[in-house]
Each structure stands twice: as C-alpha cells, then as structure tokens.
Design a protein that fits this description.
Structural class: alpha+beta
Number of helices: 27
Strand order of the largest sheet: 14-26-25-24-15-22-23
Oligomer: single chain
Strand content: 15-25%
Distance between the termini: 60 Å
Radius of gyration: 31 Å
Amino acid sequence: MAELSADREYAARLSACPACDAAPLAERVAGAAAQRGDLVLSLPTAHCATCISDVERALLAQPGVRVARVNLTLRRVMIDAPSLSAEDLIPVLERIGYEAHELDASVLSSTAAERQGRDILMRIGVAGFAMMNIMILSVAVWSGATGATRDMFHWISAVIALPTVIFAGKPFFVSAWNSLKAGRLGMDVPISLALILASGISLFETINSGHHAYFDAAVMLCFFLLVGRYLDFRTRAVARSAAEELTALEVPRAVLLKDGAEQVVGVADLRPGDVIRIRPGARVAADGEVIAGMSEIDRSLLTGESLPVQAGPGAVLAAGEVNLTGPLDLRVSAAGRDSSLTRLAHLVAMAEATRGRYASLAERASRLYSPVVHLLALFSYGLWMYWTGDWRVALNVAAAVLIITCPCALGLAVPAVVTAASGKLFKRGLLIKDGTALERLAEVDTVVFDKTGTLTMGRPELVSLDPLPDDLRPVALAIAGASSHPLSRALAAALAAEGVAPAVLDSVAEVPGFGIEGAWRGLRIRLGRADWVGKETPEAEDGPVSVLAVDGHAPVTLRFTDALRPGAADCVAALRAGGRRVIMLSGDTPAAVARAAADLGMTEFRASVTPQDKEAAVAALSEAGAKVLMVGDGLNDTAALARAHVSISPATALDAARVASDMVLMGQDLAPVAGAIEMARQARRRIKENFAISIAYNIVAVPFAIMGLATPLMAALAMSVSSVSVTLNALRLR
C-alpha cells in the first residue's frame, strides 16, 4: 500500500499542471527518470500541444504505464512503466505516427544549463526592481534634498543596493575571483571592481554625510551587464553537446543468451564473444556478426541508406542500426565504449572541440579589453592623486573610468544582432542555435548536402497506383498494412489516401528478409522481393520496386521514389548562382545518388559514403581553405555537421544531428537555406557597426571620465546610452 501511495503521489506531482511542462517540471522529471530507471524516449517529430496529448494518451492507455510526461522543448517523453521496455512502447507511438528512439537518461545533463539561465533571469529581475526603487529615491536627492533628508534617502538606497549588488553581481564576482586565482584578467575583473568601487564609494559618502552617492549607478550597471549576459546565454543555451546526445542514443540494455536462457543485462556488461538476441523493432545494442536468424536492417540513421538491407548468418551489424522484421542472434565483437556508435560519438566530440576554438569578434576584442581598462583606471587614479592629493577624488575618477568603459555595449554587440536576426530568420523557417553561427555563415563558399532526409524527404513514395487493379487494392492494403517495411508503409499510405478499405485476410506472416505473405479467400498472397514472389524483375535503376503476387492474377510491380524536398532545386540553383560550390555526400546507393543529383542539377556528388568518410571529406575541404556549410539530418551526418565551419539540419532530423548543428530548418522547404547566407552577411555588418559604436563611445567618453568631468552616476548613464544604441542598431535587421 505504501508503494502504491508513493506512485500515486509521484504521478500527481507530474501531471498536476500540463501548462508547466516546458521547463522546470520537465527537467525534474528527467532527473527523476534517471534515478528511478524509468524510460526516456526521444520524439524527433513532436512539435505542438496536440503532440503532447496524443503521445501521453496513447502511452497511458497501455497496461503497466503509470506516468507519461512529454517535454516538448527537448522532444522527449519520460515514462514510468516498471514492467515494460522501450521495445513494448515504441511501436505504440509509431502506430499513431510518432517516430521514437530510446535514450539513456543517465547521460543526459541539460538541466544544469537551464538552471543557469533561470538563475541569471532571476538576478535580472532583482536588479531591475531594486534599480527602479533606488532611482525614485535618487530623484528626491537630485531635486534638492539636503541634510538629514538626503542622508536618509542615501541610507535607504544603501539598504536596497548593497544586498542587490552582492546577490545580482554574484556571477561576475565568482568569475572574476576564478580568473584572478588562475592568474588571468578576464572581462569580469574590471566589472567586479567597478561594482565594488561604486558601492564602496557610495557607502563611504553616506557614512560621512557626503553630497553624492552612486548606489543607483552600481545597480544600473549590474542590471545592464546581466541583460547582456542573459542574451549571450540564450544564443548558446540550445547548443548542448552532440556527443552527449549520441551517447544517450546507445541502447542501455541487451538480451543476453546464456545457457539457452534470455537474460537482460546492461550493454556495459557485454564482452566480445557474448551472444545477444535482437528482437524485431529493436536497435542493435553492440557491434557483431549474425549467427542465426534472418531479417532486414534499417541503417538510415547511421549510413543514410534509404532502403533496408537483408541480414542473415554472417552479416556484420553495427550498434545503432534497427532490426525490422525478424529476430537475430548476434555474436558481440565490440560493445559499450568500443562500439562503432561510441567511436562516432568520440569523433563528434573531437570535431566539436576543433570548431569550438573558433573565436567570435566579441571574444577576440575582449582579449585586449581587461588590461587596457585596468591601465586606464590606474592611470586616472595616479594622475588625480598627483594633481590633487585627494584619494577620494582620485578614487571617484578611477571608478567613473571603470564604469564608463564597462563592456555592456561590447557584450551586447553580438547577442543583440543575433537576437534580431534570429527573429527574422525564424519567420523564414530557420532557428539559430549558436551565437557565432551568423558570423560563420557569412563566410561560406562551399555547401555540402546529405541526400536522404535532407535534399529528399527521406521516405519512399509510390510512383503510381495505376499498375494495381481495382479488385486487388483492398488486398494490397491489408497485406501492406501488416508489414513494417518502408515500401509496404508507403503502399499502405497511398491506398489509404485513395479511400480504399482493407480486405480481411485469413492469415498473414512476415518472412524476414523477403517480404510478407498471407491468405485471402484461399488464395496465397505475397508482397516483397521480386525473386521471392516468383517474378524475374530486376531492381529498376530509377527507384526501388516491390512486387504483389496473388494466385490467379498476374504479378504487379510497384515502383517507388524518394521525392525531393520542396525548395531543394531552388536552393541549389541559388547557391550555385551566388558562386558557391555545391557537393552531395550520401550513404545511399550510386544509382539513387546520381538520380537525385541529375534532378537537382548538381555535378559534384559521392555515394556509399560512411560517417567517417563524410567527416573526413568536410575536414579535407576545410584544410584546403574552404568555409563549409554542412546540411544533414542523420547520425551519419553528425560528425560532419560538427566538423563543418557552420551547419544546418532539418527539424525532422535525429536529435543528435539537430544538436550538432548551428541552425535548424523548421519547415520542409529548403529554399530558406540560400537566403540565410545573405541575412548572415547583413548581420555581420551590423555586428561590426556595433563594435564601431562601442569604440567611438569609448573614444569620446573615456577622456571625459579621465578629466574628472563624469561622476560614477554619469558614467553609468553614458554606459546605458551606449547599450541602447547598440540594441537599436541591431533592431534595424528587422
């Protein structure tokens, strides 16, 4: 009873407020899922509130599912179902039209970044509220309050400002302290020093009944700095580690065959020579060789091959591939850290690290910023001590120099432009994830495309129903609907769209590696490979085929094609017209790749390319001096996406590919990819203009501060004006 009560309480906490799903609650559920060992499934195609209700309703309708909670932001569903496995629930979601993959919750750690964002936002709120209240008190002082009244307002301001600066300025203080411990002068050192000096001078003046206190300057400075920090955080927060996502895609458990019995074990416990069973619909848990069984393997996530391949004894499989039709017994050759999927994750991590060394304009400018600011402040202090001998005056001037040169405008120069450009590109169907992506996209001279799922829709479509007689269409729908093969699904979808009602079959059975067969009114039916159904029809070079054979009727050859993505031809034409080199790298067959290249007017293409080959090709282009834009959607593209100068993936791409990319194409139309490059050039011009504004502001303002013509409050106001100017210039992009 106690356990049942705890489960009910757990379920109530998770489902109390559907509107609270997107952030904090979903993250707590993800953490709880990792601790409890619950299932976490990736939902690459979930995109709206209807998806949430559809997925949760379908899962909760299954016996054994106690809680199902969708996080739409991360496109994941957390499931509490102790007696069920991912293999039991993934088909449930596929039946209602949602692709799903199991993730290992223990390796997902995106919540730390989200907590950081909420922490900065909370500090902005505190600083903004305190700033408004202190400014109200300052108005009374500016209006002529003197004596005890002025001192009272200063003390009230101190009571508000000092805790606010300590609390809201904590990120700067911690970063500055860490920099000093490491023997460096980071940008947060002068910021922290300015906050401390402005607050310290103001407190000293208040204690001594001075005429001027600058608590409002300290809090205002803190507020604008935090706003800049948050904008910068938001441009980077979405880009989590692709290597981490790849690791999460590894199957956490496997079915070990030992002494003739099945035993569920962790993949990390597998050793070379172990024999595991891969059930239909499950992903391969380790690299190895098939020793028993016959099936078809979907390699599209890893290699980009659009059609399944036959696998029987002697076939070599890799971790991450999907078993479609029949059970397979696999002798393990490599598992866990030694598997091909883990090696791919390591390749991605190395590629990300290489690209991570790219420094944005703001980062390059900041290298000189801190030493120059400290030298200017020290020079000002020494100059005024020499002239006046009054340390209070000298310290006020030094504080004004530090404040007036604080990097608000510099910190906003890139994030403000990225925020404005992101809004405009989002309306066109492109979501920017990385703050430096626009700068890099403006430099692109070579574009590399994947084929399946990127230039094409990634799913077979029936060319025509004309070869299929009307009286056989209900039978064809019934037999195709019982198969999980992509060609059968495409046939069933085409027939259902025509309003065909399925016939009632007497029996049906899938024959792994060949097709599906059944009986209807005493007649044998087969749908699958031509040689299996008894018709010598070679695979047509213009697309894959499937043959329907019904006793007493002539076999019917059904042809399929992978349709081009809308806007693909226009995108390629626009890129080539702009003088850019366009290349296609695909893991699909040479015939399919050549056909797609001809349809798109592309002259450079390679087929049967492995993930390592793609990454190597992009690296070779980069080493030759090319600035490569990589556009891809599968696991086989992930390393190349991370290695490229800048990268884009469709929203329908696998999670790991979207994470590795800098931008996400939200719609099906590929045309916005070409237009994004021109937008990136405009954004780069705005970034440079913002730096020019920042430099001009400092050239004008710093001499005033050094000459003692600007108080710390005036310096804070001038700093605010520069920040607003940078933001307004960025908004011109809209």
